Amino acid sequence: MKNKSSDKLQRRPIGHEGYTLVELLVVLAILSLLIGLAAPRMMGILGGAKRDTAEMQVAKLGGILDLYRLEVGRYPANENGLRELVEAPASVANWNGPYLQSAESLVDPWGAPYIYRFPGEHGEYDLYSLGADGKEGGDDDDADIASW
Question: Could you tell me the CATH superfamily of domain 49-146?
Fold first, then answer.
């Protein structure tokens, strides 16, 4: 005697064998259109976020440089630059650091080190990033982010 429940499991109703190639291509075309429309907008948002992050980091590093000056009596020298915020220089007696947890904080969102100059041309010190393009000047994400 044949088991009817096993027959039901083995048979598939007609029209439910799976998706056709045309259906899959239509879905892929729709997804491609959505990605094509959304990707440029998302890239613009991401670029703006990096710029905002760089501005916050420059402001934070500026505050840390001021704290360093209060404790040591001067801003970091050009020879060591911002590394003095992470590693104690041999010539500084009042160093109470590290003022930053790691040297990774000295790198801008585009992977380039922040530029530090003491004495500065625009203030007591100059601290800036060259932006996404790594060149002076520019607009939008390529614009420089500076402490002055």
Answer: Glycoprotein, Type 4 Pilin (3.30.700.10)
